[in-house]
Each structure stands twice: as structure tokens, then as C-alpha cells.
Amino acid sequence: MQEDRRFVRPRKQLVETLRKKGIEDERVLMAIGKIPRHKLIDTALHTKAYNDTALPIGMGQTISQPFTVAAQTELLNIEKGEKILEIGTGSGYQCMVLCELGADVYSVERHKELYHRAKEALHELGYRAMLKVGDGTLGWSTYAPYDGIVVTAGAPVVPDDLVQQLAIGGRLVIPVGDDTKQMMLRITRVSENEYEREELADFKFVPLIGEKGWGGS
Ligand code: SAM
């Protein structure tokens, strides 16, 4: 595909910004340096496409801040060929980063319109992932267990279905908190009934809406 020269330099600068902010995994930085983020947002926002900020994608949702995408991906510690579930497909950006790392990607989005747009964008840019419309707080049991699960919206609590859909050794990276800020958690399934929980930095996400999320029982 023909590269638009206007975006080459801003994308390189974004990679350097993420490096300075502490992202160390070169595979993640390479993915960010390759994916045409501008193609996932409205043309009116193109000048901001490679700023390290979240941007609107419609339906009151956002394409995540590149630093957040990079940090969550780094925390997943992905090996090539691992099966990864993403909750909150949104624009498809995080999904593409996971594909670039060689993961076998599954992703759930609750908004049908965003699902359709992400599906088209992934196809157009040559990425393969399994997508569906649904309530991601329930995971995607059909393809479980997963080596990694990444939740890209803020949850009030850790949904138990997600924990149960982790393989032994699998990692769940999820922001949990109230509607003002969330703590990034990494939960690793050490054995059938044993989990290790790490509390990492504070982040700010749009809410995870669903049965086991905000608005659920
Ligand atoms: N990963 C996305 C990206 O790279 O563009 C981030 C999108 S946004 C920060 C979070 C997404 O989570 C939104 O698209 C929202 O509709 C979705 N979402 C919220 N609750 C959800 C749920 N229960 N199941 C699936 N998707 C959900």
C-alpha cells in the first residue's frame, strides 16, 4: 500500500515519545511505528493522529492513547503465536498492535457500528483477527483459554469470566477503578486455582459497560 509521506515523521516522533515515556519492548515500538493510526480516525483529526492522546471515534468512544496501548501490550508479555483476547475493539488499533506481535487475536466490541468499521479497517490494512459484537465482560468462551486478555475500557471490578478464561500462565491486563481513574492490574493464572495480582500505574479509560461491568448486576 502507498505510504502517505505526511505521516512518516509524526509516526517516528510518536515512537520516540513512547520510548522516552518508558516503553522498552522494541516489538511494541516497531508496531506503533508501522500502523497507520490516521486511517482509523476521521480525516478532520488527521493532524492529531500521531499525538500521544486518545481521540474520538464516534459512539462516545475513543481510540486509546498510544502510550496506553503500548503499555498494556508490554504488560501482556506476548510470545509469537499466543492466543490473545481483547475486550473493546474500538477502532481496531490495539488489535493491530497485537497482530503485529504475531498473536492470534480475538476481539469483542459492544457497538455494532464500531465492530463493522474495525473489521473493514483490519481487512483493508491486511490484518487478520476474529471479531464479534457482544458483551466482553463475559469474555469469549468459544475460543478460551487465552494466553492473554486485555481490557481496553475501565471496569468497576475484575469480571470473573475473564479470569476463568485464562490459560495456566495466562495474563489478564485490566484497568479497574471508579469513573475518574483506574489502576492497571495484571492478573496471572499461576495454576488451576492460583492467581498472582500486580497493581501497576493509574490510567483513565472510557467505561466497560456490561453484565459484569458498569450497569451490570
Ligand atoms: N482498543 C480500542 C482501540 O484501540 O481503539 C480502544 C477503544 S475504547 C478506549 C474502549 C472500547 O471498549 C469502546 O469501543 C467501547 O465501546 C468498548 N466497550 C465498552 N464496554 C464493552 C463491553 N462490555 N464489551 C465490549 N466492548 C466494550
TrEMBL record:
GO terms for biological process: methylation; protein repair. The keyword Transcription regulation does not apply. The active site is at residue 64. It comes from the Bacteria. Pfam families: PCMT. It is found in: Cytoplasm. Keywords: Cytoplasm, Methyltransferase, S-adenosyl-L-methionine, Transferase. It catalyses: [protein]-L-isoaspartate + S-adenosyl-L-methionine = [protein]-L-isoaspartate alpha-methyl ester + S-adenosyl-L-homocysteine. GO terms for molecular function: protein-L-isoaspartate (D-aspartate) O-methyltransferase activity. The keyword Isomerase does not apply. It is an enzyme of class 2 (transferase). InterPro entries: PCMT, SAM-dependent_MTases_sf. One of its GO terms (cellular component) is cytoplasm. Its EC number is 2.1.1.77. Catalyzes the methyl esterification of L-isoaspartyl residues in peptides and proteins that result from spontaneous decomposition of normal L-aspartyl and L-asparaginyl residues. It plays a role in the repair and/or degradation of damaged proteins. Belongs to the methyltransferase superfamily. L-isoaspartyl/D-aspartyl protein methyltransferase family. This is Protein-L-isoaspartate O-methyltransferase. The gene is pcm.
